[in-house]
Amino acid sequence: MTTTSIPAIATKRIAKSRISEVDFNNLEFGKYISDHMLMVDYVNGKWQEPSILPFGDIMMSPAMLSLHYGQSVFEGMKAFRNKNGDICIFRPQKHSERLNKSLARMCMPEIPEELFIQSLHAIVETDESWIPTSEGASLYIRPVVFAYEPRLGVKIADHFKFFVLTSPAGAYFSKPTRLKVEETFVRAAEGGTGFAKCAGNYGGAFYPTQVARQEGFDQVLWTDAKEHKYIDEAGVMNVMFVIDGKVITPKLTTALLDGVTRDTIIKLAPSLGMTVEERRVSVAEIEEAFKKGTLTEAFGAGTAAVVSPIAAINIHGVDYTVPTVTSNSFQQRAKEKLNNIRLGFEPDVHGWNYIIPAAR
Ligand code: COI
């Protein structure tokens, strides 16, 4: 989809850009926030007009409901400068759908797709000079919605804010990750908020992840809350395996995030000659596949993580090493295809790219 113009948005520009402070050769994920932010208020039962202002602190009441009762959800998306110099925002409709599912689960007002996409368009265009062009880098987009109303009573807020920040970002993981299959702690139970991108899911994962880090792992590989028998996801990414030449990934439940990169890879797999099985994946099956040598790949898929190779998985205290990625690995080919589509080197047959043409 190519869109040349959107309705004008009230904009207050920063007096002096901070872009010279950015080390574009070393874009640690999340370190730099671009010059501007977009804000929209939800009051009197409807979303108001957006405005763009310099990135900075905002006034908040210590009694703000999101601080006390956790009504806060977010998204993570990416924009690129494609081979023609145009801006490409990847799959904004899918992110809009997911955000609205998260909002509904948290009793927060949905954001019309048009407002969401116009907001992304406006803020990315405003800070387009912050879009990195080095290989593997992108402008990470962080839309957030949170309860703004001050009140101590346990209630659904009536006043919310939606804002969008952007951040030039490089790779999320600098090397293949070591994961630990989690058998004590739980990220999400079926019927809970695991599928929603709400802030509490991440805060609740900090302690188990810290414990795993102290044991020498990078991330936790979460298992189902009931039996710790089936693999869910890795918290900042979904997981996929190649076993016996087939791509296998845990099927979505209410306890797993419906990852956009996960969905993208599933849709690209047939064109790469691979079939995908979305189903329950037991820890025992993975352990057995390691032992038999039939597991040839394990990787994470996420917006921030893109396609991230997994180096090792610890199951019941035993480290199993995943074979090294080669140029012929499925994950490598999938990652290349995904990047080629976003950068315009391959046709976007699925209509995933939202293109903002370069000013010429
Ligand atoms: C993303 O991939 O966008 C995420 O939200 C994961 C993490 C950076 C929170």
UniProtKB/TrEMBL annotation:
Q: Which NCBIfam families match?
A: ilvE_II, PRK13357.1
Q: Which pathway does it operate in?
A: Amino-acid biosynthesis; L-isoleucine biosynthesis; L-isoleucine from 2-oxobutanoate: step 4/4; Amino-acid biosynthesis; L-leucine biosynthesis; L-leucine from 3-methyl-2-oxobutanoate: step 4/4; Amino-acid biosynthesis; L-valine biosynthesis; L-valine from pyruvate: step 4/4
UniProt protein name: branched-chain-amino-acid transaminase
| SUPFAM superfamilies given in the database record | D-aminoacid aminotransferase-like PLP-dependent enzymes
Q: Which domain of life is it from?
A: Bacteria
Recorded hits in Gene3D superfamilies, A to Z, give: 3.30.470.10, D-amino Acid Aminotransferase, subunit A, domain 2
Q: Which cofactor does it need?
A: pyridoxal 5'-phosphate
CDD domains given in the database record: BCAT_beta_family
In short, the EC number is 2.6.1.42
Keyword vocabulary terms for this entry: Amino-acid biosynthesis, Aminotransferase, Branched-chain amino acid biosynthesis, Pyridoxal phosphate, Transferase
Its biological purpose is as follows:
Acts on leucine, isoleucine and valine.
Q: Which organism is it from?
A: Chryseolinea soli
Q: Which residues form a coiled coil?
A: none
Query: Single GO molecular-function term?
Result: L-valine-2-oxoglutarate transaminase activity
GO-annotated biological processes: isoleucine biosynthetic process; L-leucine biosynthetic process; L-valine biosynthetic process
